Amino acid sequence: MVPHLTTALKGPLLDLERRFLSEQPAIERWFRTQWLEHTIPFYTSVDLRNSGFKLAPVDTNLFPGGFNNLNPDFWPLCVQAAQSAIEKICPEARGVLVIPENHTRNQYYLQNVAQLTQILRQAGLKVRIGSLLPEITQPTAMQLPNGGSLTLEPIQRKGNRLGMADGFDPCVVLLNNDLSAGVPDILKNLEQNVMPPLEAGWTTRRKSKHFAAYDRVADEFAKLLEIDPWLINPYFAMCGEVDFHARTGEECLAAQVDTVLRQIRVKYAEYGVKEDPFVIVKADAGTYGMGIMTVKDPSEVRDLNRKQRNKMAVVKEGMQVSDVLIQEGVYTFEDINGAVAEPVIYMVDHFVVGGFYRVHTSRGVDENLNAPGMSFSPLAFESCCAFPNPDCAPDDTPNRFYAYGVVGRLAMLAAAVELAEMQQ
Amino acid sequence: MVPHLTTALKGPLLDLERRFLSEQPAIERWFRTQWLEHTIPFYTSVDLRNSGFKLAPVDTNLFPGGFNNLNPDFWPLCVQAAQSAIEKICPEARGVLVIPENHTRNQYYLQNVAQLTQILRQAGLKVRIGSLLPEITQPTAMQLPNGGSLTLEPIQRKGNRLGMADGFDPCVVLLNNDLSAGVPDILKNLEQNVMPPLEAGWTTRRKSKHFAAYDRVADEFAKLLEIDPWLINPYFAMCGEVDFHARTGEECLAAQVDTVLRQIRVKYAEYGVKEDPFVIVKADAGTYGMGIMTVKDPSEVRDLNRKQRNKMAVVKEGMQVSDVLIQEGVYTFEDINGAVAEPVIYMVDHFVVGGFYRVHTSRGVDENLNAPGMSFSPLAFESCCAFPNPDCAPDDTPNRFYAYGVVGRLAMLAAAVELAEMQQ
Questions:
Q1: What does the pLDDT average to over B251-270?
Q2: Contacts of B24 in chain A (CB under 8 A)
Q3: Which entry of A57, A340, B23, B242 is 20 to 30 Å from A20 by CA?
């Protein structure tokens, strides 16, 4: 099922979907040539927003959680794609050490790790889960809500190799930890292949660099399809040196908010969009939806009260906000039984392997749906996004999902460009 | 569902399946290194026989029909694998010209072509079906039993390129025609990529070369797993210059039948197999089960009556038999509701994408199940063969299918070796 589009204005999206369908061979061929030119991240998830007049990525995660939310029917696709990735990155690999986040109390997250482990095992690898938590001093079984269990084990470093006390010596270290708290010494200068590379962690990664790369990818793709790149690309700007506590950088922030709002207004006028433009203000580094504001007027960022400033100043694991991203807000007019729905696309290697909707009853169409304390219901896609059907309407299930898969892959490609630039 | 194994002696197979399971990481790693060293055929299907004491390939088809018999749940795997193959072989491809067999009256075959076309379209290619039949002088829609239709179109050759009258100029020619009638001039010396290569057709291909390559592949794999290669490999021998009409070559045939039967007897004694050894005598080139005999004693090939000689002397499209393969017969003790079942494994690129059972109520456990006039019921595998589950018994559904997928891939690897040798 595809959610209901509640906007009156969905002509631009229908045109876009129609274009994706009719140009599918050209699109897939273009992607194939891109895969040859870039090193693709091992896995990626992309948050999309669909306003009916625009379908755009708003966040690209290189350490995706949520594999447990995918449709079990498409797990074979994950296994096959993982085999393809391993083949390219480390064909000689026997063992993989997975390093998860330290959220041992988040059982949904642990189910994600269990699912990821299962995918890698079925792809033919020996998989062990190494915890960065100091309290994990021996193999520790964690019970999962689905009745399964997951064993976290302490990591040992010998010289420049990570392994385990019983001699487990993996060829590859797979990070499912976004390194928001910095890169731990134990992970530095390893001789093993680390996927994704340490630079992909939030210690060094910046959303503004990602969306700058996405600008170029989206422009090239839009040229290929002869479409307005704005239809798939949100405007953005950034401010460095913002300190919400000390109230420095507020003027820069207000000015950039104003700039982006003006840019959006021009496009809204061009396409006859009647909604109010808005921007999302969030940390340029970091994740988990902490420190995120919806802003419709520059004045709103000038006069933050103490509570708002505290909320913005702290992100995951206490990282200080200093660089701030101001991103065009894209309305979510997708709606499942009255609840707002945001699609998340999953990729392993360069293959789209599924996705799900974050469905949230208590949030607005202009709010971030991946926010703190947020308890969304995941609704697995019923299609694997690889199956357009030209005999159906452009917004029918397989075709809407194909469009998601195209935009998701564009964001993943931008991440590949971004990582290559960081490693230069 | 996995068919019931009706043999009392299934210990060797259980051991084999157990070994495949416990060594899965080593097996998959070995396959990955093989994929790097060999050019893998675009697609392959492999007929297996499972006697409980042995699981072996008996035929490897490089122009597989029967894609319509696969479980629709796993079509996404076919699409993803096709994308992977195209990416490696011809990333720049936009259009594909599929050249099917000339069986326009075989509606099951036409459904296979339709399914194959659908897979390629969903992988993002422009696909047209070019017929070699002289009577196809304009686009001709064929009705399919499932309600769909398929358009066959005349091919045009311009210089060294194949295309169609309206300017369709494909990058790739995909053969789904095994060239039993010889290589038509229109296919010779094309500048386009032809997949599989023309050498893979029965004009030049020989089963004895395939099984000679399989001998080496199976030996190397058996060494890796420390198993007896006979458990996965049928003995074979060949005779050249056999003319059943002129009754020349009968002595060679009888001698080779005797040799292979003796070899089998030694192994049957070693494993305590109580059944009668038998061999299958078939054309070394050619397909579709024409000219196939089950033989339990050398005398049987010495005194063929006229009817038997006529049956053996003619294969598909009138090719004359001259080289003959004598292959160890492998009993089929897999049984679905009393009917004999033979598994067929499908691969696209090097990925196992599914399979089905040929189920036949009126044939014996020692007969070829892909014989003329044979109307088998296809029973799609419920598993994609990529999903072993170490928590289940070695002969439980996912694990039995994993074993099929391993042996199927060994045969496909042998085909890759065989093709490389032919092209040297």
A1: 96
A2: 124
A3: A340
Name every chain B residue with its beta carbon within 8 A of the beta carbon of A31. 124
**pLDDT for A62 beyond 90:** yes
Q: pLDDT tens across B359-376, in order?
A: 877 777 777 766 554 556
Which of A75, A83, A168, A391 has the most B C-beta neighbours within 10 Å, making it the best mutation to test the interface with B? A83
Query: How far from A21 is each of A16, A26, A405, B122, CA to CA, in Å?
Result: 9, 10, 12, 11
Q: Rg of chain B's alpha carbons, rounded to an integer?
A: 21
Residues A213 and A327 in one domain: yes
- Domain stop point among A178, A200, A222: A200
Per-residue confidence (pLDDT) for residue B319, from 0 to 100: 58
Determine, yes or no, domain membership for B259.
no
Residue B289: per-residue pLDDT: 47
Answer whether B26 sits within 8 Å of A74, measured CB to CB.
no
**Residue B257, in any domain of the structure:** no
Residue span of the structural domain in which A292 resides: 4-66+206-423
Residue B73: both structure tokens together: 């749940």
Residue with tokens 């064993």: A151
Q: Distance between CA B183 and CA B194 in Å, rounded?
A: 12
* Whether A193 and A272 share a structural domain: no
**The complex's ipTM?**
0.88
Other CB atoms within 10 Å distance of the CB of residue A422? 15
Q: Does B147 touch chain A (CB under 8 A)?
A: no
The residue among B294, B313, B329 that closes a domain is B329
- Least confident among A165-174, A241-250, A323-332, B19-28: A241-250
CA–CA gap between residue A125 and residue B329 (Å, rounded): 35
Q: pLDDT of B276-288, one tens digit each?
A: 999 999 888 875 5
Residue A186 is part of a domain; what is its CATH number? 3.40.50.11280
Q: How far is B107 from B109, CA to CA, in rounded Å?
A: 5
Per DSSP, B71 falls in state: -
